[in-house]
């Protein structure tokens, strides 16, 4: 499997729970490397643009409200099959349906505050990484 990069966001609920380190440890233990990271408090414009694909969904306003409710930690993860590996580590969107031992099962309670974001395809990974990071901010090892 090819080396890939994916965008991960530790969402405001998980940051508020002091779970940044626990979540990043799961990525590292699974063989993913953090090659870029920043903490930021998203504006409505930045969060809305990030989730533009969901603009027409009934939950869009709540989603943007939640994502701007506190700071987030945005990272680029690199590794073999990083996109699918990260999605496996995250678990299902609804934490009530997330497999035991996944990040969402362990750190999230509701579908709107579900601890983490991860890119879902190579195309979205490319768009999402460049939405947050310039090439000079990514540090492959
Ligand atoms: P993800 O890729 O697993 O994060 O899920 P989606 O791309 O489908 O949705 C993006 C985010 O929107 C999810 O992580 C949730 O935070 C939120 N979301 C998705 N579906 C719902 C829903 O039915 N209700 C609410 N309130 N939020 C939702
Ligand atoms: Mg998604």
Descriptive key words:
141 residues; alpha+beta; 7 helices; 4 strands; globular; binds guanosine-5'-diphosphate
Summarize the structure.
The chain has seven helices and four strands, in the order βααβααβααβα. With 141 residues, it is α+β, with helices and mostly antiparallel strands.
Per-chain topology:
Layout: E1 3-10, H1 12-16, H2 20-29, E2 33-40, H3 44-50, H4 60-67, E3 72-80, H5 82-90, H6 103-107, E4 116-118, H7 122-132
Antiparallel strand pairs: 1-3, 1-4, 2-3
The structure holds guanosine-5'-diphosphate and magnesium ion.
Question: Can you offer a commentary on this structure?
Answer:
This protein is an alpha+beta fold. 39% of the residues lie in helices and 20% in strands. The chain contains seven helices and four strands. It has a four-stranded antiparallel sheet with strand order 2-3-1-4, sandwiched between helices. The chain is globular and about 40 Å long. The model has no long low-confidence stretch (mean pLDDT 98). Guanosine-5'-diphosphate binds at residues 54, 59, 62-63, 93, 111-112, 114, 117, 120.
The number of helical elements comes to 7
Q: What amount of the residues lies in strands?
A: 15-25%
User: Low-confidence stretches at least 5 residues in length (pLDDT < 50)?
Assistant: none
Bound compounds: guanosine-5'-diphosphate, magnesium ion
Q: What share of residues is helical?
A: 25-40%
CA distance, first residue to last residue: 18 Å
* Mean pLDDT over the full residue set: 98
């Amino acid at each position: 499997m090819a080396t890939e990069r994916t965008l991960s966001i530790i969402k405001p609920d998980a940051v508020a729970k002091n779970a940044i380190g626990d979540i990043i440890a799961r990525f590292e233990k699974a063989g993913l490397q953090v090659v870029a990271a920043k903490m930021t408090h998203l504006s409505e414009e930045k969060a809305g643009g990030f989730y533009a694909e969901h603009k027409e969904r009934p939950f869009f306003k709540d989603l943007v409200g939640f994502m701007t409710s506190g700071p987030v930690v945005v990272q680029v993860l690199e590794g073999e099959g990083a996109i699918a590996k990260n999605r496996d580590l995250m678990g299902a969107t609804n934490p009530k349906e997330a497999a035991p031992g996944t990040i969402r099962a362990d750190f999230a309670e509701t579908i709107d505050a579900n601890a983490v974001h991860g890119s879902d395809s190579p195309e979205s990974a490319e768009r999402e990484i460049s939405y947050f990071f310039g090439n000079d901010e990514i540090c492959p090892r």
